[in-house]
Amino acid sequence: MEDLFNFKDIFKKSALNLESFNSLSYVDMFWGLLISLSVGIFIYWIYRKCYRGVVYSHNYNMTFVLMTIITTLIIMTISTNIVLSLGMVGALSIVRFRTAVKDPMDIIYMFWSVSAGIACGAKIYPIAVVGSLVVGATIWVLSKRKDNGSPYLIIIHYEERAEEDVKRQMRKIQSVLKSKTIRKTGIELTVEIKMKGDNLSIANALSATDGVQDVVVVSYNGDYAQ
């Protein structure tokens, strides 16, 4: 029974001792925040250079820098006191993020920022720096890899008499039929194609075809139009 009381006293002293806040020096805080800021800026630069979507969001990219620093602050805070760590876990458990993330690569950048922030907050700086360099180099190489072009949806409205001419133009490129709607006023054809850069020669050729009313080109990521 006496041992049980001694254990409780030891736990209370170690858990509620406010002097444990002084265990983190100003030097550790300075280096932790400086390295997390540097890693966050590196993540920002990689995202900016390797972004392959349609509309780049500067504000969204800034969140990676802030997420790295804030995660570092959280880890530094909860590492100084067990009571704060338990309270922080309880507080964060009720947080819900409802922002839809359309590109799976954006989730990778989020995990990267959080992981780097955790390493900096735990004062494991080599993991934060070397790990970020490896991840950044991997993303850079894969994003610069040459492919057959970016996917696009091309929507064509034409008259029935232009059916053969449109098919002849579509045979010249790699295309996949998505939908075809036949109306009394004309035909609507939706096809997935791949083009490199801003080469819209196929769209220009289709629009110049006799009987074609209009041609619309939409950026497409395989799941949804952007």
From TrEMBL:
The chain crosses the membrane at residues 29-47, 59-89, 109-142. It comes from the Bacteria. InterPro entries: DUF4956 (IPR032531). Keywords: Membrane, Transmembrane, Transmembrane helix. It holds the Pfam family DUF4956. The keyword Membrane applies. This is DUF4956 domain-containing protein. It comes from Paenibacillus plantiphilus.
